[in-house]
Amino acid sequence: MSRPRVLVTREVFQETLDYLARYFDVTPNQADTPMSPVALAQALADKEGALTTLSERVDAALLAQCPKLKAVCNIAVGFNNIDLKACTERGVLATNTPGVLDASTADFTLALILATARRVTESEAWLRAGQWSGWKLKQFLGTDVHHATLGILGMGRIGQAVARRARGFDMTVLYHNTRRLSAEVEKSCHAAYVSMDELLARADILTLHMPYSPATHHIIGAKELARMKSTAILINAARGGVVDDAALVEALKRGTLAAAGLDVFENEPTLNPEFLKLKNVVLTPHIASSTEATRRKMALTAAENLVAALTTGKPPNLLNPTF
Ligand code: GLV
User: Fold this and answer.
1) pLDDT digits (tens, 9 = 90+) for 212-243
2) Is 82 in the pocket of ligand 1 (CB under 6 A)?
3) What is the pTM of this model?
4) Most buried residue, 22, 58, 180, 310, by CB count within 10 Å?
5) Which overall architecture, per CATH, does domain 5-100+292-311 show?
6) Ligand 1 within 6 A of CB of 77
7) Could you tell me which residues come within 8 angstroms of residue 5 by beta carbon, excluding any fewer than 6 positions away?
8) Which CATH number fits domain 102-283: 3.30.390.50, 3.40.50.720, 2.60.120.10, 1.10.3210.10?
C-alpha cells in the first residue's frame, strides 16, 4: 500500500522531515520559497496532509482544489490563516501548537517592554551611527519598568506567563479577558481583573495576548488609544490586526501615546511605512517564539499532530469543534 503523501510548505528542521519520513512520502520546501495560492493548490492537489505556517492561507477556495486533503497542521499557536469552518465542512482536521511557545513568547514580551521603555534599540542605532560624544545626565531618559502598572489584555497561557514574569519587576498587574480567571489562577499570577476601560486608563504598559479573529480585529483602535495615558507604552507580540496600525501611528506621532514595542503588524511583512520613521517604536519581525529550542518544538509538535491525524484521526491539538 502506498504511503500517505504530505507537503511541508516552508523550511523546517531536518529532524522534523526525518520524523515525518517514517510515516509519509514527504514533499519538503527546504528552499523556503513562499507559495502563492496557485502554487499551494498545485502542490496539495494529490496530498493527504500538510504542515503549514501562518504564511499560507487555507480557505474554502484552496480546499476545493485539494480533494484528498485530510489534515492541515499549522506550525503556530495562532491559526487565523486557516478557515476552520471551511476545513470542518470538508472534513479536514486542523491543528495548532499550543503550550510549547508560551514561555519563549512571554520572555520576548518582557524584552520588548524593556527595550521600548529603556530605549535600547533607539540608543543603539544612535551609538552605531557614531553620535556618542560622552556621558550626559539626561541622555536617553526612559521610563521605569519596575513598579509600573502592567495591563494585560488577553489572559490565556501567554498572558499568564507574562504576569508571572512581571512580579520579578515589582509591577502591579491588571488584566482583562473575555472570561475572568478563577481566584486561584488570579492569585498565582498576582493579577487583578478590571474592565477594559479601567485597563486602558490605568496601564503604564499595555500588552496584548489574544488570537486574531473578527472579534479581536482592531480591538485597540483610535478610541481605545485615546483612553490610554499619554505616557503609556503599547506592546503587541500577539497578531497583526488586533491593533489598528494607522491609528497607532497617529497616536505615536501626536504624542498621545509615548511609545510602542511591536513584533507583529497588519499586512506583514509590508508594515505601515510610517513606523520606520518613528523613533519611539521598537520593531521586530514576528520572532517572539523564535528560540532554537522552541521553534524545534513547534515544528515537531505540528509533525506529531500530522502523524496522529492521518494514522488515528485524533491529533492531540485538534481545532475543529465538531470532530
Ligand atoms: C506565532 O505567531 C504563532 O502563532 O505561533
Assistant:
1) 999 999 999 999 999 999 999 999 999 999 99
2) no
3) 0.97
4) 58
5) 3-Layer(aba) Sandwich (3.40)
6) yes
7) 24, 25, 27, 46, 47, 48, 49, 68
8) 3.40.50.720
